[in-house]
């Protein structure tokens, strides 16, 4: 298999790291080499978090700018912030919501409007998903990251069954049904080709 690079971006508390762990686990299920790394600033409360997942034959865990095949943006503003990592022709699966950063309040900075953020993404292969609504439909707003994984699974070079098994291996048993429902709702939101 040739390499496939996935950048997952969000803010602290959105489940970015769990999402990267699920993709890595799915690679292990399929016996595909995988490397990954997370970088986080003030991730405990609202800080930027990025996870690099490199599927296939690669040497280092960090995706160079301009090389990501897929970006999974758990927050629309973070998707714009890390857009320089996406390669020409790359795809974005983005949550159609933005958490207002703390400096907007504390320093009275302007907050870009949704249309401005979408305009910054330009002419890209973009799939927007209302992860909050689908997570609520699944039964708990905390599973938005798994909804996003379900949607992104349509773009990943991994089998649906491997992703579902990876979810089962990565979440507590008592939340398995909730998480699998969230995964299915996200996956079904993206029309199969």
From TrEMBL:
<dbReference type="InterPro" id="IPR002869">
    <property type="entry name" value="Pyrv_flavodox_OxRed_cen"/>
</dbReference>
<comment type="function">
    <text>Catalyzes the ferredoxin-dependent oxidative decarboxylation of arylpyruvates.</text>
</comment>
<feature type="domain" description="Pyruvate/ketoisovalerate oxidoreductase catalytic">
    <location>
        <begin position="12"/>
        <end position="187"/>
    </location>
</feature>
<keyword id="KW-0670">Pyruvate</keyword>
<dbReference type="GO" id="GO:0043805">
    <property type="term" value="F:indolepyruvate ferredoxin oxidoreductase activity"/>
</dbReference>
<keyword id="KW-0560">Oxidoreductase</keyword>
<dbReference type="InterPro" id="IPR017719">
    <property type="entry name" value="Indolepyruvate_Fd_OxRdtase_bsu"/>
</dbReference>
<protein>
    <recommendedName>
        <fullName>Indolepyruvate ferredoxin oxidoreductase subunit beta</fullName>
        <ecNumber>1.2.7.8</ecNumber>
    </recommendedName>
</protein>
<dbReference type="Pfam" id="PF01558">
    <property type="entry name" value="POR"/>
</dbReference>
<comment type="subunit">
    <text>Heterodimer of the IorA and IorB subunits.</text>
</comment>
<dbReference type="InterPro" id="IPR052198">
    <property type="entry name" value="IorB_Oxidoreductase"/>
</dbReference>
<dbReference type="InterPro" id="IPR019752">
    <property type="entry name" value="Pyrv/ketoisovalerate_OxRed_cat"/>
</dbReference>
């Amino acid at each position: 298999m040739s390499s496939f690079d996935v950048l997952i971006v969000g803010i602290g508390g959105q489940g970015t790291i769990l999402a990267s762990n699920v993709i890595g686990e799915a690679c292990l299920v399929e016996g595909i080499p995988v490397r990954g790394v997370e970088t986080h600033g003030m991730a405990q409360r609202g800080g930027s978090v990025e996870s690099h997942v490199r599927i296939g034959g690669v040497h280092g865990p960090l995706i160079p700018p301009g090389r990501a095949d897929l970006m999974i943006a758990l927050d629309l503003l973070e998707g714009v912030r890390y857009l320089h990592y996406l390669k020409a022709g790359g795809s974005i699966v983005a949550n159609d919501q933005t958490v207002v950063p703390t400096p907007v309040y504390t320093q009275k900075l302007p907050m870009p409007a949704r249309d401005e953020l979408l305009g910054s993404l330009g002419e890209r292969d973009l799939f927007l998903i209302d992860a909050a609504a689908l997570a609520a439909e699944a039964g708990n707003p905390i599973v938005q990251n798994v909804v996003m994984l379900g949607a992104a699974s349509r773009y990943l070079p991994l089998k649906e069954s491997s992703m579902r098994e990876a979810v089962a291996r990565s979440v507590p048993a008592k939340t398995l049904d909730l998480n699998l429902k969230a995964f299915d709702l996200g996956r079904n939101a993206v029309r199969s080709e």
